[in-house]
Design brief:
Number of strands: 10
Strand order of the largest sheet: 2-1-3-9-4-10
Shape: globular
Length: about 240
Amino acid sequence: MSGHGADIRVVSAEAVRDILETVAGPFAIDTGNTVSFAFMTAGQVRKHVDADEPIDLAIASSGITSELVKAGKVSSSTDLARIGLAVAVHESAPLLDLSTPDALVKTLLAARAVSYTHPSVGGTAGLYFGGLLRNLGIADDVNKRTVFSSGGRDVAEKVARGDAELGITFPSEINPVKGAKVGGMFPHALQNYVVYAATVPVAAQNADVARTYVALLTDASATPLWERAGFEALMGRP
């Protein structure tokens, strides 16, 4: 069932929250349909879709959405935008020198406390950063000074409160948090650009309406929203 007056249920990774909520307003005015959101880690999004819940749209990192496509859990997938990892600092702190891998390592080892999303909750940034620490050989040193978080905004909020000196997450999860700012982006050699994609689960009850909403997210008029949040907008590819 789909059509005018529908309320589409969206489960999404937290990284794209501001854009989704902003576009939902014009979508409701233009179509008469509304959007209900639940924001979580990308790994948690997958669990909801795997459970065949009546979700109309699921948005997560492309690695997860590709697996959902292969598993036959979604009927379509559209790339939205990509974003790289950043280091959050308190709004009063100076910007960081993160120009090289050595500079990033030096910054992490000098920090009083670091926050990132605990890998067990399936956050894209936390999973990558946890693995990066191991690859760099500094996991034990950094993790003994780590204040683990439940998601990207929680990372930025811990930095804003002073619970952590540095936070590792995406710019789109740092910018909305008062008291925190982007201190610098990861150096190119260690950067992990993540593409976020929108998928329509096979269990969707309002699939056509969900696709209309995705069309707004990929429209040229939405590009400034993505860019202000720290993303590079991508052309939608079904």
